[in-house]
Design a protein that fits this description.
A hairpin with a 4-residue loop joins strand 4 and strand 5. The strands form three sheets. Strands 2-1-8-9-10-7-11-14 form an eight-stranded mixed β-sheet, sandwiched between helices. The chain is globular and about 65 Å long. It has 346 residues and is α+β, with helices and mostly antiparallel strands. It has two domains: 158 residues, D-Amino Acid Oxidase, Chain A, domain 2 (2-Layer Sandwich); 118 residues, FAD/NAD(P)-binding domain (3-Layer(bba) Sandwich), CATH 3.50.50.
């Protein structure tokens, strides 16, 4: 449909997963072919097929209004636009969702991810051979580190230009989170923090823990990150995806924890389902009802599954039954099989 020629164009192929012990020994391997993509790569592929005169930048949506026959979007520069349908695909902090369903807010999951990227040329030859081409894991008690290759800075997929994506999930209570999100000026907005505002002592404490807890291979990667950043992990579930002539899709409607790796896939499935129902010669209201019936429960299931995979990482105390259930997903074999592999639930 969009003339994207092959799966390999979408991202970087990965064939094998492997887990490292604290001593640096490979303890498990798993053959699981997949394509690792990113929002940047998908944006580039889709944007180049979208007409420039239809793509308006530097516009801030401030309000939406709708009647029985149309919906109007109002912007901060005083302009507005009328349409038959408005699609809200504006992410977890959706302006549109906040106006339609203000009670649907992101819920902190009880842990954070330290993240960073390393250019392929900045890795040693050994790291390029042993780490970069693989999906790798290291599993300290109650924590999880993983790495995988993604496209380069300019979204190139050829091996020499790729980057290594490094992610370290760590429990953090609400109190600890607020300390992590307090910036170099002593300010805290309670939800996130810019990478260049993370306090040096917070970064150094994380690096010290890496030396103590991680495999030598993963510790070396953590130490090499130029500007690691903190991603608090949130869940989000909306009660509805359709509000008369307004539709919520992607993370604006449902945000699943990263463990399933379905952020891009989920959004694409929403978009394709919406396009298909709109092309079925139904009335608009019938098409939107059909779309919601297809995607609402599917998205709820994905959020529930992602919560299940990440439960053992939470800082909050779990009940005995919750601990028992969470323990099923914390073994090396389970983490390697289940992470970014939603097919296991089908």
């Amino acid at each position: 449909m969009l003339d994207i020629n092959s799966a390999q164009d979408i991202g970087v192929p990965i064939h094998t997963r492997k887990a490292f012990s604290k001593s640096g020994i490979v303890t498990d391997t798993l053959q699981l072919p997949q394509i690792a993509s990113s929002w940047g790569r998908m944006y580039q592929l889709l944007r180049q097929h979208f007409p420039d005169d239809r793509y308006h930048q530097n516009k801030v949506l401030t309000q939406i209004q709708q009647t029985q026959h149309q919906v109007e979007a109002l912007f901060s520069d005083g302009s507005s636009h009328h349409a038959d349908l408005l699609i809200g695909a504006d992410g977890i902090r959706s302006t549109i969702r906040n106006q339609l369903e203000p009670g649907a807010q992101p819920q902190y999951a009880g842990y954070v991810a330290w993240r960073g990227l390393i250019e392929a040329q900045d890795l040693s030859k050994a790291e390029q051979q042993e780490i970069l081409s693989f999906f790798t894991f290291c599993l300290p008690e109650g924590e999880q580190v993983l790495t995988y290759p993604i496209a380069g800075r300019q979204h190139q997929t050829d091996p020499a230009m790729r980057r290594c994506n490094v992610v370290w999930y760590r429990p953090a209570s609400q109190t600890v989170l607020q300390d992590l999100l307090t910036d170099t000026n002593g300010n805290n907005n309670g939800e996130s923090i810019a990478p260049d505002r993370v306090r040096p002592e917070v970064v150094q404490h994380m690096r010290n823990d890496a030396t103590t807890l991680l495999s030598p291979q993963h510790n070396a990667l953590i130490q090499r990150l130029d500007q690691p950043f903190i991603q608090p992990i949130y869940d989000l579930t909306a009660a509805k995806m359709v509000h008369q002539r307004i539709v919520l899709i992607g993370d604006a409607a449902f945000t699943a924890r990263p463990h399933l790796g379905v952020g891009i896939t989920k959004a694409a499935q929403d978009a394709l389902a919406l396009a298909e129902t709109l092309n079925n010669n139904q009335s608009l209201s019938s098409a939107l009802n059909t779309f919601e019936s297809q995607r609402l429960e599917a998205n709820r299931t994905l959020v529930d599954q992602s919560r299940e995979l990440g439960a053992y990482l939470q800082a909050q105390r779990l009940s005995d039954s919750e601990k028992k259930h969470a323990s099923l997903h914390r073994t090396t074999a389970a983490v390697m099989r289940e992470t970014a592999n939603p097919d296991i639930f089908h």
